[in-house]
Write a structure and sequence with these properties.
By secondary structure, the protein is mainly alpha-helical. Helix content is about 80%, strand content about 0%.
Length: about 150
């Protein structure tokens, strides 16, 4: 039988987990979105959008924000839940590892969905995604480190 103190402790721990998850997700999503917005004004991004007939406004503003929040949530949840199982002690490196794993999974799946355009545009797409995912990983790891009072051992 669970005591009242134990039940309250579990709820408080759960509340703290979700509070950290919300903060990390928001910060990671914002970093992803800001980096995407900066990239989206480049000439290479304009050529990429033209080649695939992608509208600028939905891609740069809405799609990047939603995508960044989804990826940020996955990276943040994984970092919070599996912190001790990820190699290295530095939270920023752990978040970068998770972020880059997410990027490679997305790139692999996008290649499977459209194998006809997997040559040059996959390389360009990956090149444009690297800064987005690096920014997300660095911000999530840095904020995690600050929320927990420094590097955990």
């Amino acid at each position: 039988m669970e005591t009242q103190v134990t039940g309250r402790s579990k709820r408080q721990t759960s509340h703290e987990f979700y509070k950290k998850l919300f903060k990390l997700t928001g910060a990671g999503g914002a970093a992803f979105w800001i980096t995407d917005f900066v990239i989206s004004v480049s000439p290479i991004a304009a050529e990429y959008r033209a080649a695939f007939s992608i509208s600028y406004l939905p891609m740069a503003l809405v799609g990047a924000l939603v995508g960044g929040l989804m990826i940020g949530c996955c990276v943040s949840y994984s970092l919070l839940r599996f912190f001790d199982r990820i190699p290295t002690k530095n939270p920023i490196l752990k978040a970068l590892i998770l972020s880059l794993v997410a990027m490679f999974m997305i790139e692999f799946l996008s290649t499977l969905v459209d194998p006809n355009n997997a040559s040059v545009y996959l390389l360009i797409d990956t090149g444009m995604n690297v800064p987005r995912f690096l920014a997300l990983g660095i911000v999530v790891g840095y904020l995690y480190n600050n929320l927990n009072g420094g590097v955990r051992s």
